[in-house]
Amino acid sequence: MQKILITGGAGFIGSNLVEALLKDDRVGLVRVFDNLSTGNLANLHPYMDRNDFEFVKGDIRDYEACLKVCEGMDKISHQAALGSVPRSVEDPLTTNAVNITGTLNIFTAAKEQGIERVVFAASSSTYGDSPALPKVEENIGKPLSPYAITKVVNEQYADVFARLYSFRYIGLRYFNIFGPKQDPNGSYAAVIPLFMKAAITGKPPTINGDGSFSRDYTYVDNAVQANVLSLFTKEEKALNQVYNIACGERTTLNELWGYIREIIGCPLDALYGPERAGDIPHSLADVSKAIQLLGYQPLVKVEDGLENSLKWYKGLFNDSLEK
User: Fold this and answer.
1) From start to end of 183-317, where are the E strands?
2) What's residue 277's pLDDT?
3) Which pTM does this prediction carry?
């Protein structure tokens, strides 16, 4: 039975992955490594008393801590990062320290501890200023933000480590993942949690730009599926590759708010503000490579994912309104 380390396992995608792996018969132990700077320990409370789960508080910027937490593990799912393009524009130094130095620490610790495989969170921001749609893994542009640079460098380090050492990896370029446990609070919250919060609490959201910008919004179960497939695939040709993880469908911000309004029954119109620095206008993934090599299938589409998320967000916001 496999022992798997999840960095950033108290966060949004990481904690959903913890839940899936603890239900998987191939897994004997899940160990989470998280400094809780953006993660939430409450996401892990259901598992704290289990014999097949461990939580280690620590920072990926601390190499010795990385080396220690990797000891005895078979595989790593590296989800820890400082997300958000706007945050990286405001604070490129911390973004660089966490996303580049931290990832290099995990890769190096994995190499030193003889870890079989590292699956890591890459990003669609890697495509930068490339106008081509849909996005194909081999064709990237120039990065448009410090965050995007860090994700490009992560992929380059993985490739170099695979060439120089007995290091095996899979990089997953996430496209706008959303779903339960995604934090709607704070200045860097993603758009879907903000829209959910606005609709449930009866306050109109502010859309950056005219609402025509589009994204390939991807429900978190699809990202979890991709991680599980990547951790356990036995196909050699699937290793040392990066993959787009998305639905292969484009939704504008105006359409997105329309879906959420309809699901919740909210009559409010959105407000409009200035575009954000570093944002790309449109994003759409070609997921054929992941389908062919990993067996990935984006089973949950945007509207279904929004409906699945609604119960969680209603519980969250109704609890906060009652307090």
Assistant:
1) 206-208, 214-215, 218-219, 241-245, 251-252, 271-273
2) 75
3) 0.94
